[in-house]
Structure formats: C-alpha cells, structure tokens
Amino acid sequence: MAPSAVVRVSPNVGVIGASGYTGIELTRLLARHPTLRLAVASSERWVGEAVAARGGGASDVRYAAVDDAMARASELALVFLATPAELSHQLAPRLVAAGTRVIDLSGAFRLRDAAIYPARYGFAHAHASLLADAVYGLPERDRERIAGARLVANPGCYATAIVLALAPIVHAVAPGRRVFVSAGSGVSGAGRSATEDKSFVEVYGDARAYRVLRHQHDPEIEQATSARIAFVPHLLPIARGILATCCIERAPGVAARAIDDALATAYGREPFVELARSAEDVGLRDVVGTNRCRIGVAHGDDATTIIVAAIDNLVKGAAGQAIQNANLMLGLDETAGLADLAPHHP
Amino acid sequence: MAPSAVVRVSPNVGVIGASGYTGIELTRLLARHPTLRLAVASSERWVGEAVAARGGGASDVRYAAVDDAMARASELALVFLATPAELSHQLAPRLVAAGTRVIDLSGAFRLRDAAIYPARYGFAHAHASLLADAVYGLPERDRERIAGARLVANPGCYATAIVLALAPIVHAVAPGRRVFVSAGSGVSGAGRSATEDKSFVEVYGDARAYRVLRHQHDPEIEQATSARIAFVPHLLPIARGILATCCIERAPGVAARAIDDALATAYGREPFVELARSAEDVGLRDVVGTNRCRIGVAHGDDATTIIVAAIDNLVKGAAGQAIQNANLMLGLDETAGLADLAPHHP
Amino acid sequence: MAPSAVVRVSPNVGVIGASGYTGIELTRLLARHPTLRLAVASSERWVGEAVAARGGGASDVRYAAVDDAMARASELALVFLATPAELSHQLAPRLVAAGTRVIDLSGAFRLRDAAIYPARYGFAHAHASLLADAVYGLPERDRERIAGARLVANPGCYATAIVLALAPIVHAVAPGRRVFVSAGSGVSGAGRSATEDKSFVEVYGDARAYRVLRHQHDPEIEQATSARIAFVPHLLPIARGILATCCIERAPGVAARAIDDALATAYGREPFVELARSAEDVGLRDVVGTNRCRIGVAHGDDATTIIVAAIDNLVKGAAGQAIQNANLMLGLDETAGLADLAPHHP
Amino acid sequence: MAPSAVVRVSPNVGVIGASGYTGIELTRLLARHPTLRLAVASSERWVGEAVAARGGGASDVRYAAVDDAMARASELALVFLATPAELSHQLAPRLVAAGTRVIDLSGAFRLRDAAIYPARYGFAHAHASLLADAVYGLPERDRERIAGARLVANPGCYATAIVLALAPIVHAVAPGRRVFVSAGSGVSGAGRSATEDKSFVEVYGDARAYRVLRHQHDPEIEQATSARIAFVPHLLPIARGILATCCIERAPGVAARAIDDALATAYGREPFVELARSAEDVGLRDVVGTNRCRIGVAHGDDATTIIVAAIDNLVKGAAGQAIQNANLMLGLDETAGLADLAPHHP
C-alpha cells in the first residue's frame, strides 16, 4: 500500500473492543478525524447500537460482535485492537495473516522477550515471530519503523509518560543506580469492569500504591529505556491522567544543564511533547483531553534531578497515540485529528 | 507542676490561631477530650462568636483577639500555637517567659540550626536559646523529653509521615545514597487563605508537584532522620491526607527481613502506628479522621525497598499529634481523646 | 427490663450485617459509645476477623456468621439489623419472639400498609401484626413511643431529612398542592455492592436523577408527614451526605413568619436539629460526620417557601439515628455517644 | 455584510475578556473552528503572551489590553464580550456604534426591562434603545432574529438549560402554578476570582443552595418562558456542568403524552438538543465537553411532570452557544466547530 495513494481517499479502519474506556475514546477521536473513517466497531455489550450514540460522531456504523467485525477485516486499511492482552494475542496474528495492518493497544506485543508473558500477563506467548516483527509504537522514539510496520504495539499509559521522560537522559544516570519512579493514575486506567476497589465510595478521598515494584509495565519501561527502574504506581481519586515523577542521580561529571539540553534536543520540535519551565509547571490539568506529554525538570544542589511528566492516559497514553501511529502508518500528517484537542480544564 | 496532680483536675488550655484548618481541628479534638478543657481560643475573624458553633463542642468559650488571648496565658496549663511560623516565633518566647508551656504547631522551633530560617521560613531566628531548648514533638521518637518540655515543636505534616517511615530503618540505607520520597497531600495542608492555585476549579482533577527539592520540611526531615533525602511533594485533589512513598537502596548485607524487623521492633507497641501487611495496604481512607500513621513495605528483587506511610495531615500531622504531646506533657494517658477517632471512610 | 437499671451496667448489643457501610458506621459509633457494648457482630465476608481492625474500636469481638450471631441474640439487650429489607423481614420476627429488642435499619417495618411492600421492596410482607407494632424511629417526632418499643423501624436516609424539614410545617401547605422535593445524595447511600453505575469513573464529575417519582422512600415520607410529595432524588459525586430542597406553596393567610415559628417551636430544644440563619447556610460540610440535621428556610415574594435540610446519610440518616433510638430504648441519655461527633470538614 | 460572502473567507473575530473560564473556552473553540479566525483577544493578566499557549490553538495572536483590543474592533466581523456585565454594558454600545457586531456573554443586554438591572446586576442601565434592539441568543427559540442581529445577548448558563426544558411545554402548566426548578452547577459557573467560598477545601464534599429565589437568572428565565418559576440553584463539588430539575403540575386535561409530544416537536430536528429516554437518562457526563442540551421527562401518577435538562455550563451554557450564534450571524453552518465536540467522560 503506497502512502501517497492513501492520502487521497479516506482509509477505512476498525476498532475491536470499542466499549472499553480506550475503545470509546478511539471511536470519538476517529469521529473527528479529517481522513480516517471508522467502518467497523465491535462491542459485545452494544451489538446493534449506533456508534454515534456513544459520542462516535456522525457515523452510521453500528457495533458488531467481535467475530462479525473480524470477518470484515480485509476491507480495512487498519484495525485497532482495544482488547485485553490475551484476546489481542489471539486476534492480531489473524489480522496480520489476512493482510490487515494492526495497532494493538494491549501489552500482547510490547515485550521482545516472550518468556516474560506468563508472569506479567498470565499467558504463554505463542507468536514469537510476530512478537519479533512488532514495532513499539512510541512515535517520538521510532517514527520511521512505525510507518512501515504491519503490527504496532501501542505503549502502555505509564510507559508512555516514563519512557518519554527518561529515554533522552538515561545515559546520564550514575552507573549502577536505579531510577525511582513514583506515578499516579486516574481510575480509567484500570479499565471498566465493576469491582469494589474501583467503586466510587472506595476510591473517593483515597490514594494508595498498587503493584509496587511488580507492575506489568516495568519490563516494558526497562526495555524501552535500558534504565533500571524502581516503579511505584498509585491510584488517584480522579478519572483521567497520569503524573510520573522520576528521580535520578546524575553520573559524575554530568551537569544539570546537560539534562535540560538533552530534553530540548529530543523534543524541541515534537508536536506532542511540551517542555515546561519547571517540574512544578506540569500538571494533569495541562494535558487531560489532549495528546500531549508535558515534561518539566528540577535539579537539586547535588547530583539529584527530578523529571516530571504528565499525560492523559486515555489519549497520549492510549487512543490518541494509536491515532498518531495510524497517521504514520497510513502516510497522513502525524498530527491529523489530534492537534486541536483542547484540554478539559477548566 | 507535678503531673500526678494534673490528672485530678481538668487542665485549662488555650489555642491561639483557632480559625485555620489546624486550629479548628484542635478545638474540635479538645471538645471531645476527656480531661483537657479549652478555656481560651483566639481568632481574629470570629471574635466574639462561640467556639461551639464551629464544632468546638459544648464549651461556652468565645473566640478572642490574639492579644486578649495572650493576656490570659498565665491561667493556662498549656497553650497551642496554631499560628504562622513568624507569629509563633514572636509569641512562644512570651508564653514560656510567663511560665506557660507551649506546643507550637508551626515550624518556628523545629530546626536546631537557626541559620536555616531565613531561606526556608523567610525570617531570621532571634531566639537561639529557646530553639535549643525546644523538643521536637514526635512522641514515638522522643516521648520522655516531650513530657518534660517547656516548648514542644510539633512536627510538620509531611515530616511526621516520613520520619516515622524512615527513622527506624535509615541505618540500613546504602552509604552515600539519597532516599527518594514522593508524597501527596490534600489541599488543607496548604492552609486556608484564598488563592487561585487553591481554588476548586484549578485543583479539581489536577495533580502536580510543588516546591520540588526545596520544601521547608526538607531540613526538618533530614535533622530528624539523619538521612539525606530528595523530597518531591505533590498537591492532590482531595481535602485531607498525606501519602508518602519512600524508596531506599539497602546497604550491602542488609536483608529485606531486617527492614521488616526494625519496623516491627520500633512500632509493635505504639498505639498510633499501624504496620500494614504490604505497601499496597496503606491508603488515605485507612487513616483520614484518625491519629494513626499506617506504614507498609515492599521489597524488590534486589536491594530496593519501598516504604509507604499514610496519615491525616490535620490529625497525626498536626492537631492530633499536638494533643498527644499535650497528654504527655500534662501526665495524662497519651491516647486520651484520640484513641476512639474513627476513620472518615466511607 | 427497667431503664433505670440499665444505666448502671453496659448493655450488650449486636449488629447483624456489620460490613455494609451502615454496619461499619454502627460498629464504629458503638466503639466510642460510653455505655453500650458491642458484643456480637455478623459479617459473612469478614467471619473471624476482629471488629477492631475495621475501626470498631478496642473491642475484642470478631465477626460471626449471621446464624451464629442470631443464636446469641438472647444475651443481648438490643440488636441492630443493618441488613437488606428482605433479610430484616425474616430476622426481626425471630428476634422479637426471643425477647430481644430490635432496631431495623432497613425499610422492612417502616410502612404501615403491608400492601405497598411488593411494589416498593420486592417482597410480600408476612408479618402484619409486627408491622403494626413497629414504631417509626424518628426521635424528634415520637421519642416516647420509641422508648417503649420492641421493634423500631429506623427511618430511611432521605426520609429523615425530608420529614424533619416538612413535618412541622406541612399544615401550612396550600390545600391540594404537592410539595416538590429535590434531593442529592452521596454514593454511600446506594450501598456497597460493586456495580458499574457506582464505579468511580462513571460517577466522577456526574450528577443525575434516579428513581424519579418512584423512590421507595416516597410512601414512607408521605406516611410520616401526611404531605403529598413529588420526590426527585439525585446521585452526587461525593461519598456522604444528603441535601434535600423542599418547595411549598403556603396556604392563603399563612405568613412566612409562621413557617419560621413552627420550625423554631419544633426544634428549638432538639439536640440534633440545627436551625440555620438561611437556606444558603445549610451545606453538607456542616453536618457530614455528625448526627445533626441542619435546616434553613427562604421565602419568596409571594407564597413560595423553600426549606433546605442536610444530614449525613450514614449518621443521622442511619447508624447515628439508630444509636439515638437505642439510647432512648435503653433509658440512656439520648445524646450518649453522639454529641461530640465532629464534622469531617475540612 | 452579505452572509453569502462571508463563507468564502475566514471572518476575523475578537474576544474581549479572554482569560476568564468562559473566555478561555471561547478561544479554544475558535482555535478549532473551521472558518472563524481569532484575530484579537484581550486579557489584562496575560498581556503579551501567546493565546496558543493557553490552548488557543495554532494562532499567532497574543493577548492585548482591553483598550488595544477595542481599538482594533473595526477590523473584526464580530466581537465576543466575555466580560462582567457592567463592563459589557460599557463596551457593547461602542462596538455597535463602530459597526461591529457583538455577542455579549454577560447579562447586560438580556433583560428587556431596564428597571430590573439595579437590583439584579448592581448598575443602572443606560442604553435602553440598544437593550430593545438586542436579540436573546437561544438559537433553538429564535434562530432567524439572531442571524440578523447587531447585538446578541447570549443566555445565562442556568437559563439555557431551563428555558430549553420549559419553553415548549410551559403552556401545559396548570394556571397560576409556579414551576419549581432545582438546579446544580459546577464551580466554574461562579467565575475565576479566588474567594474562600470557592476554595477547594471549602467546596470538596459539600453541596449547598445559594441565591435561593433571588438568582439573577430568575427574570431572564421568566422573560424567556412566560412561566412563573421558583428557582433554587445549588453549588456542586465539580468543575463543570449544570443539571436542572423542573417540576410542573399539568393543567387539567393535559395528558403526559402531550408533554412528550411538545418536546419531540420542538427538538426532533435540533442538532444540539437530545431527547433522552427518561429523566434518569440525563447526566452531566453525557454533555460535559459538548454543545448539547440533553432533556428527559418523567410523569407521576397524577398531573406531576418532571423535566430534567443537562448542559455544559461553559459550552452550551456560554462559549459554545456563542459560537453557535456567531455561526448564525455570519451565515455559516450553525454547527460549524461544534458538532464534533466529544464528551469529557470518561
């Protein structure tokens, strides 16, 4: 498929798993996309209903069952899998085999080492060659390989914020030192299933750490940054947003200024990475609703540096980044449908 | 004043600065205290109103102007200063000179090194000998000196959580390593003044770091623990509570178990420190409304250990701890008026 | 059992259904009660765990299975049923038959007309004589009959606020006119079960009406006030609290002042009803955490009057009022264990 | 200016008062508008800063002082006044005199009766003929006059929701009866000034009525509907959204079905009014972020009918509706720049 041809028509795309929070966000972003056209959407709970009624725009598409949606994949230029990792692990190979390009928003194809899957994702990985073929979809790091990929593994939400914060400066970390990362996430990051620990009364006014030093994004972050991290995620009483606070000790001889310069070099021209004046100038209200990652830095009196990054977990941390990847894969302007997203605040 | 005599009567106490969030909490805790009797309360904004109307219980006390309240200090067994640091710095010496014992809830007498005050608190310290005489009021660390003190410097809210988490295990930190501490606080910790950055619309749905590596509690924590810390506080969109997540690298040869044992030894019999089963089992909902500090631990595969501590910033982090100190100073049961505080959750 | 004798010992009481939000609140209030002693608590989910670990104070009681708890009822002066209505409907007759006095916090014994139960509560009522014998437990309206009751039907949370607001002034409503009541409630009023509509992400930032003109409290309110009401409850994105806004048209010749006077007469000496200066001076933050109902009034230029009432749904709307009723039934000071509850705000 | 000509170029527009919450929303909506071009924006606090840095899109416009912005009005096809009523009252006549069309988002030109201004808005109205000339800008009620207006008075946020709910059915209200309206609003509706009653800690977990029976929108609603209302607004602990619950008694002989039919007739083809299946099916999460008003109805057993309406106070209740009006005034598609706004939820 020649990208130059794609621009002239509206490529048809599909969303499998369109009723989770990520799937809803995807259909809404597609509804306002200037070029991409949502042609197929699957949702078991809403089969037969109009996507438009859920904010999916003026489209006349109706939710289909997964099997019916999969049967139409060959009509599509690209399919987004907004499905649990184990289901993505089943569906992606079928789509790729049928010649349909895939962006998988789960973790099923993010880790190069298949052996990690049983412990972190609860299933054995059966598609080693496709895993090797998949491209980790962080455009700011690997835009060209994404453009040519058959299967893009869209990064995890925490991983997006943390890898963007650390990748340009990880070489400056003192040898042998871990990078400590403390992050907070809104509850939408935990998905839509109704469980007591996600119920309003339990979360309201609370804040607590979870999966301390054992989150499934740990290996993804370490793979993408080559840093050794100690990661503590926290659940915050908000719906959306991730704020990641990273603490490094700089290697001897690395000046604070070198960190600032590395970030400026990496992101000075990136459309979706904003460098703030300071670590304090980075908050969820600056990014929620947008596809932006906002990054700020503070340096201590000695070799300590703090890097804070904020994203909207459902946009830059999931559906927005998937659109950004789709734009790259289909030869569109990378910012199409994303540049004019306004923050939800106030 | 012989403590043994005090138990038989109800000691009269006063609160200067009774209309800030800490002052309100103090008057409420005093209203339900079995022994202490609130006799004087000052508030410029509510002069002449009944303390009882603000939740201060069945007392018939009315708010007075500061000068009127100070003039009655000699009637009182103890005065709580819930005033800004610079005002406490003026008032505490007058009270002590008049023979009235003082618990100061500001930072005015917490730091042994007077030279730190201009940079961190914005004023030069003029009372070096009283500073030297003041006792840092963390009962779990220094209960006996508190009992005999003329002036107790009640710890800061962040410091309370972090010092309790770190003090028993700081000897186990790898030499030369900083302890990274990422903490979140409810907005009541920032006081009552109306500023745009504390307005509802600005804070709702937001989370952000502030005073990164330059919070005024930094020297207090380092003084109390002898640890070198890198501290990043965050403002969370809740009213109450502090959650502090501390990351250490253990010294060579220090087993994970040694950390657990040190905490169990330190706190096994403490009435207001709870050791949780895990780092995940520590949340604001467990402690908000109570005088408890809840602490949990997670160990990584290597030498990394995470210690999480939670408190209510207005209770164990301020007014409740002040009552605990007053109980010690006046020879009462240390838990009087505090043991039966129920969590606000649900 | 002579009330006068009861005061001298600590009556043993039990809570059946102690792990719902109301049941937890009850065990906490009992833990701080000066006289009542929690001797039995049932919870299927926490069998064998210590009640104290859930905030239930210093008690050494452990949660038992319902059957085990019921088997010990004869040891108890009183049992609180914090169970669903259908289960209360089964258990209350057994307890009363065994000579144990009962406060039922469900709706199972609130409605005098048994015929209403199938439609509103989903079961046919099989205990007509006990229903006739039950006393509606709103102390401000019927304190003497409560004191002598074998079975008290503790009012619903909405009903408590609305009946307290309307009962003293319902005679002043223009003949034939409905009283419109719009109320909002925190999510804890909907109980603890995990359902998607009570999940954090769905409720956060939302507000919506539910059971419009068909809430199960409608007949209870009409029975208790003799008013005809049009009741619209709303779910608010908070954990606790009910705010009820009632609109009446006054009958010809009834002055605004007569409404104020009727409320002052009714509640001037009530320990748990506060009359505010205005309708605007009544908010959840004034009452959440306390056993108080706060009421304020506004009058329009013509015959319109607005009465606003606020309570904590789990305290005055459930567990606190149940303690108030127990105090009356057991001859204790009606305010015992309740007077010194401080507001959760700030 | 011929509307047909306008479509071919991008009309330049200005926003005076661009740093309030409404002004920010306006600049963001303009940034994503397909045709309108923000050429001038005034803000005293941000003079010289780029509008784009506040989410105002790719524009190269910088904030100017009010006077500088006013001086450029003659270049503009239309000016939005997002200023306080008293300032709009001064500026609008100058703009109209200069031949610039105006949409005023304050209340300064909404009321036909100038005599009401001193009591409700705190100033005497000095521009009676312009007041008479101004068109009340609710497109669903008066689209054609808006298209030709020189000055449009953009409706108040509460008024938008309530007038849309009531206007089609007010003829069905029983003669002589008031319509009771209870509504809740997010705090952004109260503007941006920092006051203690809008501070996070004071609002969090609270809900309370304000300006009961004396809100400045009362006469606006009565003017637009010819209904007599009793209006009680409430402040809710959320940032955005208005939910209005209206209670009517139907006139004798008016069937419930007639209400449903009247709403369907009025709004069946409206792009921004959604009729929900029921009163319960209307929540803030359905509309916040969009320009929609969602309306649902419940009928009681007798003549009582409840109509619930929800909007985003900053969009359909302010900036979005202003864009809708501008589209009409400038001959554009009425939905331009508004149709694809996605809800903020989840």
Write a short abstract of this structure.
Four copies of one chain form a homotetramer. Chain A has 346 residues and is α/β, with parallel strands linked by helices.
Q: How would you characterize this protein structure?
A:
The structure is a homotetramer of 346-residue chains. With 346 residues, chain A is of the alpha/beta class. Chain A is built from 13 helices and 14 strands. In chain A, 31% of the residues lie in helices and 20% in strands. The first copy, chain A, has helices spanning 3-6, 21-31, 66-71, 85-97, 117-121, 128-133, 139-148, 157-166, 200-203, 218-225, 256-267, 284-287, 315-329; strands spanning 12-16, 37-42, 63-64, 78-81, 101-104, 135-136, 151-153, 179-185, 208-209, 229-235, 242-249, 273-275, 293-299, 304-311. Mean pLDDT of chain A is 95; it is low at 1-7. The first copy, chain A, starts with a helix and ends in a 17-residue tail after the last helix. In chain A, the strands form 2 sheets. A 7-stranded parallel sheet of chain A has the order 3-2-1-4-5-7-6, sandwiched between helices. A 7-stranded mixed sheet of chain A has the order 9-10-8-11-14-13-12. In chain A, helix 4 links the parallel strand 4 (78-81) and strand 5 (101-104). Chains A and B meet through strand 8, strand 9, strand 10, strand 11 and strand 14 of A and strand 8, strand 9, strand 10, strand 11 and strand 14 of B.
